[in-house]
Structure prediction request, 167 residues.
Amino acid sequence: MAALLPADPSRLHDAAAVAFARPDVLVSSDDGAASMLAELAATYYGFWNNGSTALFEATVSPGYTDRTLPAGRQQGPSGLADAGAAFFTAFPDGRVKVLQQMLVRDRIVSHLRVTGTFTGSRRGREGAGQAIDYLATDIMRVADGLIVENWHVEDHETLHRQLAVSA
Prediction:
């Protein structure tokens, strides 16, 4: 698997990253399975708040499959790890907040708000301090306590419009 980000003292520590990722609205049954899914989801999105290798490895199955794989991204956990590294390279202060989440059987459905500041580099372009704020949705399937599949959609139109604006 590709290396994740080196430790950065300006990033949220794991517990704070996970706490930030807890959903504003949670719809689920009141049972142990839903509780496990809620913790798994918060830990996974914690990774998207700090790039922690420990959070990534605690949530993503070695057999992970991206069912909406973007062009040019490698399939599997290494492709996902590379996407995380690219996110933080472009948006060092990037954050993912779960606005609402549904937990049903082996599925986690999350509606997300992605924010940050484009002060790094992305696809050969240097950031000029543009703020980003766009929505995304994930549908993840869980097996044996890990995320094994993900179907996702991001509002790339809004992201690209925001990146085109000079700071």
Summary: The radius of gyration is 15 Å.
